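input
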Amino acid sequence: MEKLLIIEDDLSIAKSIKKHLEKWGMKILIVKDFQNIIEIFKEFKPHLVLLDIFLPYYDGFYWCQKIREISNVPIIFISSATDNMNIIMAINMG
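output
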């Protein structure tokens, strides 16, 4: 079973994504503790991460960098940010 980690602080968005992807038989975990994302990531061992840019404590770019230090799991940024700098930063983060 494919596992997907959703790192999104807007719970209604996270739940909506989860609801739709569960139809495909995925196991999905929504992060609610935004200070311990790496520990959650290590324990859950997802096959894919959906990551918001604007999060409490640290932004998504920070967490992307931390995940990249330990894993090459695919990361998809989910955000309402549309400016070119955020797009470039997301691509550069891998």
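quick obs: The chain has a mean pLDDT of 89.
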